[in-house]
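Sequence, structure tokens reproduced for reference:
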Amino acid sequence: MKLREGPASFVDGETIEVGGRRFRAKRIFVCVGSHPAVPPIPGLRDVDYLTNETLFSLDRLPESLIILGGGAIGCEMGQAFARLGTRVSIAHATSTSCRTATRRRGASSSRCSRRKGSR
């Protein structure tokens, strides 16, 4: 896998041009980036919290971890740390995590995460 950075544009349904070079693929996955949202929880900005950008810079594996947000990134981070042996709890505002997925897919994802050690 190679990372290409620069201005990009689609040439056709299977070709993208990035920084003057063309790449072809049957499927093109667009990851335009995002940044972590820090919820307005009283006291949160006063503690040394982690985000998906800083979580993997820990010197050692935590015994336990609470993840605020059960979206795709929160579920992915929770599952990764649970597989490494950390007790993980995911707190989400709704009863179904990964809310952008369909109900059936979200339920399936929740069952999979529970089997892998996330709560």
